[in-house]
Every structure is written in structure tokens, then in C-alpha cells.
Design goal:
With 439 residues, the protein is of the alpha/beta class. The chain has 12 helices and 19 strands. 33% of the residues lie in helices and 23% in strands. The longest helix is centred in the N-terminal third of the chain and has 15 residues, at 69-83. The structure holds guanosine-5'-diphosphate (2 copies). One guanosine-5'-diphosphate (GDP) binds next to helix 1.
Amino acid sequence: MSKPIVAIVGRPNVGKSTLFNRIVGARVAIVEGQPGITRDRLYQEAEWSGRSFMLVDTGGIDFQENDEIVSNVRHQARLAIEEADLVLFVVDARSGLLGSDEEVANILRRTDTPVLLVANKVENFSLEDNPQFLEFYSLGLGEPIPVSAAEGKNTGDLLDQVITLLPLEIKDDYDPDVIKIAVIGRPNVGKSSLVNSILGQERVIVSNVPGTTRDAIDTPFERDDKHYVLIDTAGIRRKSRIYISTEKYSVLRSLKAIDRSDVALIVLDAEEGVTDQDKRIAGYAHEKGKASIIIINKWDLIEKDDHTMSIFTRKIREEMGFITYAPVLFISALTRQRVHRVLELVDYVSEQHSLRIATANLNTLIREALLHNAPPAPKGKRLKIYYATQKSVKPPTYILFVNDPELMHFSYLRYLENQLRLAYGLEGTPIIFKLRRRS
Ligand code: GDP
Ligand code: GDP
């Protein structure tokens, strides 16, 4: 199930990032049980009245191909109507209506995507104090909603309107046994080529009825009586009305595909190595608790000797330290070198993703880990782990009952994680520990 996307659009300085922070609120900066990953400034999960959605500050996206401000705002608006389920168009009630606001409005008026017009910097709700407010009606986007993002005034009402306009969350109607695979990565790394190459293999039988969602083209297929769905984010780009050739653009789409998947194939271009964008995309798969495989494509283009692969692998491990559990596979979608390994690995990591460890075995392992390496004792008080149990799978999530969660140190969790991985593999899957106090 993917979360709806709400995009904030507007020219610089109207208060987009202030509004973003206000809506996202004081959510913890790190993901529970997965320290070391700071949340993204541009895309964050937000919640209101029990509905959650992804909030995107398009102002933080810098469209490199043209750094002129006005055209940047236009790009934001296009991206938003293409990718988002709802647009918050922010204008500045202090400065009043500007030409660039009108340009954006012209774009936003021409779509079916719902738009809320947000007039920010309204601290006092009287027309006397906001003489320019009425100008915004001329944008033809309905009634402007006055808010003060800085002081949090009326933002609750804004959010009430936001959630009434969100589409209902639609559940994927795939059988739970179906392995859902998202092929993610920057443009041109070879995602479509890989998809075609996988589907073109012997023994792979593509179903006649592809599923189509709004965000991706799903290709159900089977191999040896196992059922899979490929969520092809690359394919949809080709049929989209507007195509912005920016790398940032692909992130939103990858995000939605990751949400719906079990296994993420993180595709990198061997010639280009690891870029920041690759890290960001991989970070989402990790954060969302998905099984992952790192695929280095275009391996045919690399001049190699005996060490090339291990040097390359080491580099990836260094650059993407948070996802060292993901197997790395070197392929060529073009020559099909090692493409047959992809589904084998998908099977493998998805088993690991669903692995259950019997409670007795888990507790034996924890006990031994405690004996080998005693927990830290900051200020003389030592962490005690009384009992452990596996709460869920996809990804494997363990609850540790402890005397005091505050005494747990990140490095000790790492140690426990390593012990679990040594004993059970758990390759390709993140694992999560949750701490519960028990006195
Ligand atoms: P962005 O460029 O659209 O992301 O705008 P920012 O969020 O960075 O805000 C631009 C400026 O407007 C900053 O100086 C903010 O402090 C200020 N600002 C943002 N929201 C409000 C508001 O609700 N009221 C007032 N008075 N100032 C605000
Ligand atoms: P996508 O945007 O990630 O879906 O990338 P495409 O599948 O469209 O591939 C982008 C370009 O890279 C195309 O010109 C492909 O022919 C080329 N390409 C894809 N895979 C390989 C590969 O393994 N080796 C080589 N040499 N080229 C490839």
C-alpha cells in the first residue's frame, strides 16, 4: 500500500519549508531501531487525524538544468501535478500576489490534481491586517486558506482539508505469497533493460493481464510455480505527459514503488559508481524495512581484472554503510550476464525477510551474546536483557525486554545485530530491535 503524496509548491520565501516543518512536526529524527539514518528534509511522513501521507517540499528540489528562479517554480509545479495526489500552493499574504504566483497558478489550474491555495504569514485574521489577501482569489484556485506556518495558526484547519482531499488508500490485491519487486534507481541506469531481461528469461512466464496502478505498471509473472510482480517505475515514465529530465524526479516515483514492494532491486550504473542519489534511494528501501539487492548494471562496459569486483564491492560498502546486509550483484542487462541470478537472489532475500527465529533459540543466542560481551554500564548501571521475542517479519522485528531502554547503546545493538546475522544469515534484510522496559 503506498501513501498519498502531498506536495508543497510556491516561489522562494513564501514559507514552504516553515510549513513543511510545521506539518511534519516534532517527529523523531531517527527511525526507531535504526539509528544512523536521519530523515530526509524533502520527503517526510506526516500524519493528521489518523491519516498518513508523504509530504514533499518541492522548494528543496533543485532543478539543475536551469537555475532561473521562475522556471524552477514552474518545474516544481509540474513535478507536483505529475506525482502528487494533492498540491499545497503557498503564497505570501504579506507580499501579496506576484507574477510568478500567477505563472504557477496557470499550471495548477490545468490539472485534475486537487490544489489547496494557502495564504501564509497571516498572523492576524483580519482583512485590515492583510489588505492583499483578496488578490489571491483572482488566481482561480478557490478560496485562499489563511495560515501562519511560523506560529502554527490555522494549520490544523488546513490539515483537515488536506485529509478530506486525499485519495482513499487502495490495498494491492495481490496474494500474500506473491513477491513484489520494485526496480529502483536513477534514470538511465538500465532499469527497463533489466526488467525486460528478467522477463525474457526461460522459465519466466509473464501473465497476460498486467496490473496498472496510477503510479506504476505492474507485471505479474511466474517461474517454477512461484509468483512475482515487477513494479516497473521506469515504464510509466514513457507514458507520462510531462517528462522532466532531472534525477530528483525519479526519487518520488521510486519512493512509491518501494512502499508497495517486498524486495527492492537497487540498480546502479557501473560506470558512474555510487552517487548521492543512489544513496538516497537505497536509504528509502532501508528505512521502509524492505529486502534489498544492490545491482551493478552495465558491467560489460567495465575493464576488469581479478580485483575489480572486490574493489567495487568495498567501495559500495563504504559509501552505503547503512545497507551492508544487501547482497551485491554485478550484471549486464544488455548481454544478460548473471541476470539469471537476480530472481534466485530475490527468492533468497525474501525468505530471509520473512525468517522467523524460534523464541527459545533467540533467547539462547542473546544469552550467549551477553556472556561474550557484557553490555555497557554507563554511570555504573548495567543494561539487562531479560527476554527477547520476535514480533513480526518483513522485516524481522525483535522485542527486547530490558531493565532500562536508556542504557542501551547504539553500538551494542549493532553487536546484537551482528550476532544474529552470524547465526542466521538474514542476508538482504534490515532487522529491527524494539526495546521494552520490564522491571
Ligand atoms: P521557502 O523559501 O518558501 O521555503 O520559505 P521559508 O520557509 O524559508 O520562509 C521564508 C521566510 O518567511 C523566513 O524568514 C520565515 O521565517 C518567514 N516565514 C515563514 N512562515 C511565516 C509565517 O507564517 N509568518 C511570518 N511572519 N513569517 C514567516
Ligand atoms: P532506465 O532509465 O533506468 O530504465 O534505463 P534503460 O533501461 O532505459 O537504459 C538506459 C540506457 O542504458 C539504454 O541506452 C540501454 O541500452 C543502456 N543499458 C542498459 N543496460 C545496459 C547494460 O547492461 N550494458 C550497457 N552497455 N548498456 C546498458
